[in-house]
Automatic annotation (TrEMBL):
Entry protein name: DUF4293 domain-containing protein
Keywords: Membrane, Transmembrane, Transmembrane helix
Keyword field contains Transmembrane: yes
Species of provenance: bioreactor metagenome
InterPro entries the UniProt entry points to: DUF4293 (IPR025635)
Positions of transmembrane segments: 7-30, 50-72, 84-103, 115-133
Length: 151
């Protein structure tokens, strides 16, 4: 239902993942050149160095799943399962991000300048999704107790 607190948690998680996919994840120096790492690619000195569309796809799916989950309010168990899958996708976002960072030749002098806000947002989205799962589970327990009282 749209008036429940878990809806707010899921929508905020969706916004966090949207921010993570469109803002810079990190910026660093690679062989003396400034590199900006975004979900769509690595940009060295403003030019596209390598494309990371898979990272963008994982982030976009993780941003869309909470919105889909909101409208499945009649099937709470399915909501919980989709939310757990979304948490695994967000962890996969971090793992793939780390893989791409460490895939760069480490002997080449990789020096981090700063971590972007996009790298922090999936953690917040994971926490919000976990809170939504807890509230959806509490609603399921409440509905089951009402069914037990009716019998």
């Amino acid at each position: 239902m749209l008036q429940r607190i878990q809806t707010l948690f899921l929508l905020l998680a969706s916004v966090c993942m949207l921010v993570a996919t469109v803002t810079p994840l990190a910026s660093f120096f690679y062989n003396g050149d400034p590199v900006v790492f975004e979900a769509m690619g690595m940009y060295r000195s403003g030019d596209l160095e390598s494309s990371t569309w898979a990272l963008f796809a994982i982030g976009a799916i993780s941003a869309l799943l909470p919105i889909v989950t909101v409208f499945l309010y009649k099937t709470r168990i399915l909501q919980i399962r989709i939310s757990i899958f979304n948490i695994f996708l967000m962890v996969g976002f971090y793992l793939y991000f780390g893989f791409l960072i460490f895939n760069i030749n480490p002997e080449a002098g990789l020096q981090f300048q700063k971590i972007g806000i996009g790298a922090i947002m999936p953690v917040i989205a994971i926490i919000l999704t976990y809170l939504a799962i807890r509230r959806i589970g509490a609603d399921e327990i409440l509905v089951r107790s009402f069914h037990r009282l009716r019998k």
